[in-house]
Amino acid sequence: MPKLLVIIGSTRPERIGLPIGRWFADFAQTHGTFEVEVADLKEINLPLLDEPQHPRLGQYQHEHTIQWSGHVNRADAIAMVIPEYNYSMTAPVKNALDYLYHEWCYKPLALVSYGGASGGLRAAQMVKQVATTLKMMPLPEGVSIPFAVQHLKAGTFEATDTVRQAAQAMLDELGRWEKALRQLRESQRQTSTK
Questions:
Q1: Whole-number mean pLDDT of the chain?
Q2: Using an 8 Å Cβ cutoff, are 132 and 82 in contact?
Q3: Contact 146/117 with Cβ under 8 angstroms?
Q4: 118 close to 83: Cβ distance less than 8 angstroms
Q5: Which of 68, 73, 176, 183 is the most exposed place for a label (fewest CB within 10 A)?
């Protein structure tokens, strides 16, 4: 079964990204296409990029980078749960992306965005620009949750029917792209281990 890495992209105290991320990870597991792993950027706690060598070289010197590389390398597909800050992605999300290169290549990317009126769509667009540079395939299908705080009840995210339908369609498509890109990922892994 292919592996899906769900990355929770907010690190703030009292963040609503954690319950949204937990809901999505459970939903993805129930979907049945992927084995799901969660990577919470708050727990991973990457410092600002501090590797002396360019990520393309894969010559990591810090344990936090080696562990982060392992999380991403094991995945066949990526889903990011991201808020929108000032019309863009969070600094921890950008930092986490910048740490690696080969580990991201040829993986489909699904985005669950949340925020106020925009539902995090501007942040999603910013992530897509970076993702394509890292040779990921961001899906057109996504989950956008406007006024997300209104859907929290006692610390749990309660998805609407519309959100669940969007997540279902996105995961269906993510499964198709994972399969289509598999040969490219295998070729990339063989090349990077030579």
A1: 96
A2: no
A3: yes
A4: no
A5: 183
The model's pLDDT over 28-67, given as tens digits with 9 standing for 90+, comes to 999 999 999 999 999 999 999 999 999 999 999 999 999 9
Dihedral (C-alpha) 30, 33, 36, 39: value to the nearest 10 degrees? -110
Hey, what domains does the chain have and what are their CATH numbers?
3-192 (3.40.50.360)
Written as six digits, the tokens of 70 are 């392992």
Quick one: which H or E segment has residue 182?
Answer: helix 161-192
Give pLDDT tens digits for 64-112: 999 999 999 999 999 999 999 999 999 999 999 999 999 999 999 999 9
The residue whose two tokens read 């809901």 is 23
**Parallel, antiparallel or unpaired: strands 143-146 and 137-138:** unpaired
CB of 83 closer than 8 Å to CB of 115: yes
> What span, in angstroms and rounded, lies between the C-alpha atoms of 153 and 46?
30
Strand, coil or helix: 86: coil
pLDDT tens for residues 150-168? 999 999 999 999 999 999 9
Quickly list H helices, 76-153: 91-98, 121-133
